[in-house]
Fold this protein.
Amino acid sequence: MNVLMNVRELIKAHGDIEREVYLDFENSGPVLPEVIEAMLPYLRERGYGNPTITHKPGWEAYEAIMEASEEIAGYIKASSFEELHFTHSDTEANNIALLGGFSANRKLGRRVVISKIEPLSILFPAQMMRKNGVEVVEVPVNNEGFVLENELLKAVDDETVIVSIGLVNHEIGTIQPIKELVEVVKERNPCTLFHTDASDAYGRIPFDVRELGVDMATLCSYKIQGPRDIGALYVREGVKIDRILEGPLGTESLWPGLENVPGIVGFQMASRLAFENLHEKARRLKGFRDMLITEILEKIPETILNGPRGDRRAPDNVNISFLRCEGEALTIELSLRGVYVSSGSACTRRLLQPSHVLLAIGRKYEEAHGSVLMKLSSKHGFEDIQYVLKVLPQAVGRLRSISPF
Ligand SMILES: Cc1ncc(COP(=O)(O)O)c(C=O)c1O
């Protein structure tokens, strides 16, 4: 109850705010109005049936799922809609890829390889597998978050069942050269499956699962302003994967239970909007991203950019460490000024530990603690960026003025 009272006080403390700029699309965000419009009929008058049952509302639900699978499969250039499986979240998709992929292919060996900067929805199932006797190897990255290819080559052996490396890092925006990494892995062991968590890439940068050569890929809805509680896993035709939950089977073969049809329809609409003029939107986002990075590093002393620059960085990602500031305190200072950021991904925030991603790229504890993550959306305008640049020095200045360091 005390926590709730504190939260209410904090919300009240906001008072009059000149402008509100939401920059936390990493961790959630408002669902786009067009997405809500697309979902509403499926909550009320259409497709409310169970898609496995033979009546009109059931068939409508089935039709909606199939149409969404086809459209989303098309955006990632999958060979067929049958390669796309809806899940209840990205966490679930990552768990199915790792646990289900390993279980179905365990005769191939006993090793799983991931990078040191994977999200917790990969790290935690991998740790669970380690407890159960699977050999889990974490491959290091360089100071921009790129996986060290020679280390990856050393990690993959004849017994490696799965490698999982994210396409875009969720915290520092590093775009991994996945095609090259797949080649390294498959040359060493052609039987090894390659999974990529593409949650932070889907709808932000174009990619083609066949060209990348991946066997599995996780896709996210809420990061492109679709609904939450829905995600998808691409599984290349022919790849064997076990279910990790058992129960009544819906239209999906990978997880049991009733499909979230409104969520699926919303995910489809959010994807359609994200892929419309994708190149133009990415170009615009990069302009805003670079404006923020350049001005913050120039105007605020003792700041460090986390992650790479230019085309090797996701167009929407800004991650900066503010020395002599505590990240969580800075998110509160900024919130009181109407700018909503996070001090890392939802994955790490609640652990109150410095981000494992920032530590892996060589940041010291205090640098990792003072990091702020901003994720832009194509809806942001020049005035939003200018407002952030106006209030950020005020917030940092205030925290530093009371800092004991
Ligand atoms: C890259 C990545 N994958 C997966 C997840 C988990 O997503 P969800 O909350 O939809 O399960 C996150 C969470 O922030 C993430 O950043």
Observations:
- The chain has two domains: 15-30+278-401, 33-275.
- The two ends are 34 Å apart (CA to CA).
